[in-house]
Design goal:
alpha/beta; 6-stranded mixed β-sheet; 5-stranded mixed β-sheet; 14 strands; 20% strand
Length: 392
C-alpha cells in the first residue's frame, strides 16, 4: 500500500431538523392541544485513531465527508430522527490542523482516541415545548441549527522511541533490518527509502523499543534538494536520535565530517527543538576498514565534529557493534522513562507493518568523547533458522 502522511479534507456536519407547529386533531377530543415534535440532531464527523491503519491514503482521494441532517419534527408528538455520525478512521499519531487558521485541533496519539471534527447542529423545538398555562395553543417553533463545516489538514507523525538520521546510503535501512524484522528496500543507489519504516527491537523478554527510519537527507533539503526535509516530522515524537555516518573510505573525496555538519544544519532549519534533542553518533560500515585503522578513523571523525555525546562504531551489514548499541539505547530509554514493554512494542510494530527483532549479537561499547575505539566481533546477529522441511 502506498504510504501517504499528509492529506487535506473538508468535513461538513449535518444540520438539525426543524421543529414543527402541530395540534392534536382527533374525534371526540376538543382542544387537543399542541403536539408538534422537535427536530433531530444533525450527524457529527468524528475522527478515531486506529492502530490497524498506517497511512492516510484513504483521505488523499476521498476529500469531502458529509454527515446526514436530522429529520424534521412531526405531529402526534413525533420527534425527528437524528443524523448518523460519520467516523473517519486514521492512523495512531495523526495530527489534525485547521487549514484556514493553522491551529492544531487534535493529536490522536492513542489507539481508540476520538475527536469531533465537525459537530452536528441541534434540532429545533416544536410547539409542544412552548405550551404553558397562559399559552395553551402556541404557534411558535424554532428551526434547526446548521452543522459545523471545516477544511482540515491531516498530518501523520509516526510513533517511535528512536529515530535514524543520515545521508543517503549511510546504512539506516540496513541497520533497522539487522536489529528488527522490518524489511525496508535496500539497494546500492541513493534514496532507496521513499517513506518511513518502523521496526520493533527486542533486547530482552520484557524490553523493546521502536525505531523509525526515514529517507536520507542531503545538503539543501530545506530548499527541496533530494526528497526535501518534510519526513523529519516523523522524528518529532522520538526520545533519541541516532546520527548514522558512513565511516568507510570507499569514496576518496567524501568527507564524513562535512556530511554530518550538513545534516545538523538541515535539522536546525526544520525544527530547533528537534535539533536540540539528544543525538548519538553511530559510525557505520567499519567492516570496510582494516582492523588496525579503525580506531584512528573513529578518533578523527569524533575530533573533527567536536562530538561530546556517546559514540558507537558498528557494521550494520555484519552486526558488529549492533548488540551493544541496542542495549545502550534500551538502558537510556528505561532511565528516561521512555522504554516500552513487550506489548507496547508489539502494538507499534503491528501498526507499522513490521515484526519484532532478534536479540543476538554483540559489538563495540559506548565510547567517551574523542576516545579511539575498536569494535570487536564476538557474536554476530543471527536470525532464527527456518523450520526443517517435512519429508515427502
Amino acid at each position: 500500500m502506498k504510504f501517504i502522511d499528509e492529506a487535506r479534507i473538508e468535513v461538513i456536519a449535518g444540520s438539525g431538523g426543524n421543529g414543527i407547529v402541530s395540534f392534536r386533531r382527533e374525534k371526540f377530543v376538543p382542544r387537543g392541544g399542541p403536539d408538534g415534535g422537535d427536530g433531530g440532531r444533525g450527524g457529527s464527523v468524528i475522527a478515531v485513531a486506529d492502530r490497524n491503519i498506517n497511512t492516510l491514503i484513504d483521505y488523499r482521494y476521498a476529500r469531502l465527508h458529509r454527515a446526514r441532517n436530522g429529520q424534521h419534527g412531526r405531529g402526534s408528538d413525533q420527534y425527528g430522527r437524528s443524523g448518523e455520525d460519520v467516523l473517519l478512521r486514521v492512523p495512531v499519531g495523526t495530527v489534525v490542523y485547521d487549514l484556514d487558521s493553522g491551529v492544531q485541533l487534535a493529536d490522536l496519539d492513542a489507539d481508540g482516541q476520538r475527536v469531533v471534527l465537525a459537530r452536528g447542529g441541534d434540532g429545533g423545538l416544536g410547539n409542544i415545548r412552548f405550551k404553558s398555562s397562559t399559552n395553551r395553543a402556541p404557534r411558535q417553533s424554532t428551526p434547526g441549527k446548521p452543522g459545523e463545516q471545516r477544511r482540515l489538514r491531516l498530518e501523520l507523525k509516526v510513533l517511535a522511541d528512536v529515530g535514524l538520521l543520515g545521508m543517503p546510503n549511510a546504512g539506516k535501512s540496513t541497520f533497522i533490518a539487522r536489529v528488527s524484522n522490518a524489511r525496508p528496500k535496500i539497494a546500492d543507489y541513493p534514496f532507496t527509502t521513499l517513506h518511513p519504516n518502523l521496526g520493533v527491537v527486542r533486547v530482552g523478554a520484557a524490553h523493546s523499543f521502536v525505531v523509525a527510519d526515514i529517507p536520507g537527507l542531503i545538503e539543501g533539503a530545506a530548499e527541496g534538494a533530494g526528497l526535501g526535509h518534510q519526513f523529519l516530522r516523523h522524528l518529532q515524537r522520538t526520545r533519541l536520535l541516532l546520527h548514522l555516518v558512513d565511516a568507510s573510505e570507499l569514496v576518496p573525496d567524501r568527507d564524513p565530517v562535512h556530511e554530518a555538519r550538513a545534516i545538523e544544519r538541515e535539522l536546525a532549519r526544520y525544527d530547533a527543538a528537534l535539533a536540540a534533542r539528544e543525538r548519538w553518533l553511530v559510525l557505520n560500515k567499519i567492516d570496510l576498514l582494516p582492523q588496525a585503522e579503525r580506531a584512528q578513523r573513529v578518533a578523527d571523525i569524533v575530533h573533527g565534529l567536536e562530538w561530546r555525546a556517546p559514540v558507537f562504531a558498528i557494521s550494520a551489514l555484519t552486526g558488529e557493534g549492533c548488540r551493544a548499541l541496542c542495549l545502550a539505547i534500551d538502558g537510556h530509554l528505561q532511565r528516561a522513562g521512555a522504554g516500552t514493554g513487550t506489548d507496547a512494542g508489539t502494538d507499534a510494530g503491528t501498526n507499522a507493518g513490521s515484526g519484532a527483532g532478534t536479540g543476538a549479537g554483540t559489538g563495540a561499547a559506548e565510547h567517551a568523547p574523542g576516545a579511539a575505539t575498536t569494535a570487536a566481533v564476538d557474536v554476530r546477529f543471527t536470525r532464527p533458522a527456518p523450520p526443517p522441511a517435512e519429508p515427502d
